[in-house]
Amino acid sequence: MAKSRYGVDIDSLVYPVFVRQGIDLQQPIPSMPGVYRFSPDSLAKEVDRLLKIGIKKILLFGITEEKDECGTAAYGDKSIVSTTIGLLKHLFPELIIMTDVCLCAYTSHGHCGILNRSSDDVLINKDKTLHALSEMALSHAAAGADYVAPSAMAEGQVSSIRKALDGNGFKETRIMGYSAKYASQFYGPFRDIADSAPRFGDRCQYQLGWTERERAFSKIEDDIREGADIVMVKPALAYLDIIREARDKFRHRLAAYNVSGEYAMIKAGAQSGYWDEEEAVFEVMTAIKRAGADIVITYHAPDIARWLNRGGVPQ
Ligand code: PBG
Q: Whole-model pTM above 0.90?
């Protein structure tokens, strides 16, 4: 059985999944065929299927209708993500759970942090945001998350979370930093899934601009210094040069996030008959691996696993 093709193997893949309150829910996302919003019980069935095809790592996102200015529903042991981690770890102890740590799906304004109220501009309140993100990470760790993955692009988020984890007996919980995260169009479908589009302004204040190179590496350097176990470049396809340079500059576990819009493009093109989906997916995955990523976070993971399990092309 061919478990790898052109260097793309199942073990290096992480599959993003979305959970919301409810029972027996599996809501399709029109722009993302094959991706669903699950209730915890349905997600457990999905995870069972994932494990059977060899996918052992998920990146868990919570979705909620209970939004407020501070994203309160994101933290505490009753949050949708914490309760889901508990359920999944109970049923599948071998599952590696990574959790997204960001407030944008929980805030009424849709920004990734807590804002300074007095201002019309998008001004993130650094202290409040770091505190909220640390609380969120702690609650995920307490529920059993293996990795927490801060994606708010708040300065100092990794060190603040590391400190909180270490100080509360979670030295073993690891951190994957969304280190170099660009303000990208290609998050469009994700924001539909998570209902997390900013209600005003944009994310340019805290995400990287398209033209920036050096700052991507200083962000990665910061995350490594602050204690990130894995660093990330996101999105993947429009930033392959950044992945390659990061690979050459740093000896650190490097992830690339093949984001929602990149997935949607491949799916839409395949449905229109513009290309063969399997070939297109392996071409893209090969490029991301060739650029230097150790880990690829991708919505294609279950398809890739099925294709690899089917065998065919020799290793
Ligand atoms: C949260 C977050 C986003 C994504 C991952 N975590 C959205 C954003 O920054 O707007 C995007 C993932 C994807 O597009 O697949 N901040």
A: yes
